[in-house]
């Protein structure tokens, strides 16, 4: 997930309160103890990388990765939420996350800051800084306690270029055919910072972003179909010293700059989940198409089975790209087999371990500090994690 440019939380909060104070004063009172709530989540994570030729990163917002040996910075994070209920229809929500990102440290980022208006159980309106949930799980991918894996599959979620949007969305829910259908539409803008290699980064300024998704839940099944379009302007920054180290770095930077130079991009996604008794099944397929005829295809399938407090699981994920100015043999391709176990220690605490076997074909989009002669290989990651909510 891309780096989010910082914005003052006070800016959003003041606007929200100014809008809602008149409505709050006219509404029925809400008990003081129920008006303001706080919650949080976090992950303590460790990764062991078997390779001394490349460093693993979780997403395009991380400048450095987990090199050979153990590393705690890739997955570890801490998040906090505050929700203020003003009356039966209006509330304000803030969320901040501290995780390793573009600045090279764990400085907190504001990821949510929105006003919500709920005129009826069927309708919901929000305005402010919103999580971008076009894809299933993308809005909660940092809350590790909510899923069985150590981390969402990086082949799929690691290349997402936006973490949140500044704008509005509306959701409508309605019973249908024995299940529940809902649709969400959104529009806004977003700025993010991508780290494409040690020597190349990009400022992504999305001036217009709009789209939505259709959902249907019935019994143990849930389905989602999504579409979004973003108008983008990219400003690339090259570290000449790093780029001059090896000819392969110069080639990689050229390929990456071609891949991420476009004026607009369309995103399509299909997803499904199944949860009943002990089974947990998930599958998703994404396609991103640029106005330069570039294409990124990614997807994953996961199966888990709960036995008491333990949930063993297996997952397969992949990513493949195609760009007209890049030879087919030099496109980005990667696939991963994962085997893991989640153990619920308590109602708010889970221990996890995961083994990833990753097949990388050069250039590796989600790798850092690659050796000059690195042409892709099979790499083994061993991960340990402690996820919690409070």
TrEMBL record:
GO terms for cellular component: membrane. It comes from the Bacteria. One of its GO terms (molecular function) is porin activity. It holds the Pfam family Porin_4. This is Porin. It comes from Kushneria phosphatilytica.
């Amino acid at each position: 997930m891309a780096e989010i440019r910082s914005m003052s939380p006070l800016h959003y909060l003041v606007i929200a309160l100014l809008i809602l104070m008149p409505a709050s004063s006219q509404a029925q009172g809400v008990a003081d103890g129920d008006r303001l709530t706080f919650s949080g989540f976090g992950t303590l994570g460790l990764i062991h990388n078997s390779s001394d030729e490349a460093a693993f990163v979780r997403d395009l917002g991380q400048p450095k990765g987990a090199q050979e040996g153990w590393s705690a910075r890739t997955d570890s994070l801490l998040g906090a939420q505050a929700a203020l209920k003003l009356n039966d229809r209006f509330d304000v929500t803030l969320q901040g996350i501290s995780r390793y990102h573009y600045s090279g440290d764990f400085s907190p980022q504001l990821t949510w800051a929105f006003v919500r208006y709920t005129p009826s159980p069927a309708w919901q309106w929000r305005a402010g800084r919103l999580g971008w949930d076009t894809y299933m799980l993308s809005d909660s991918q940092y809350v590790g306690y909510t899923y069985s894996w150590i981390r969402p599959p990086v082949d799929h979620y690691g290349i997402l270029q936006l973490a949140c949007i500044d704008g509005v969305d509306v959701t409508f829910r309605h019973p249908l055919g024995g299940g529940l259908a809902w649709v969400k539409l959104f529009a806004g803008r977003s700025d993010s910072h991508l780290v494409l290699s040690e020597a190349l980064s990009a400022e992504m300024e999305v001036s217009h972003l709009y789209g939505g998704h259709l959902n249907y839940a019935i019994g143990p099944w849930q389905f989602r179909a999504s579409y979004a379009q973003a108008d983008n302007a990219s400003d690339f920054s090259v570290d000449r010293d790093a780029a001059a180290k090896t000819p392969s770095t110069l080639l990689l930077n050229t390929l990456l700059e071609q891949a991420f130079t476009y004026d607009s991009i369309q995103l399509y996604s299909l997803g499904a989940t199944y949860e009943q008794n002990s089974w947990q099944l998930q599958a998703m397929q994404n396609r991103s198409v640029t106005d330069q005829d570039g294409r990124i295809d990614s997807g994953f399938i996961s199966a888990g089975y709960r036995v008491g407090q333990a949930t063993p699981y297996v997952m397969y994920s992949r990513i493949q790209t195609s760009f007209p100015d890049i030879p087919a043999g030099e496109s980005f391709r990667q696939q991963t087999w994962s085997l893991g176990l989640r153990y619920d220690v308590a109602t708010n605490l889970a221990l996890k371990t995961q083994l990833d076997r990753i097949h990388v074909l050069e250039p590796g989009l989600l790798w850092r500090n690659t050796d000059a002669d690195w042409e892709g290989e099979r790499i083994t990651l061993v991960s340990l994690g402690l996820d919690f909510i409070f």
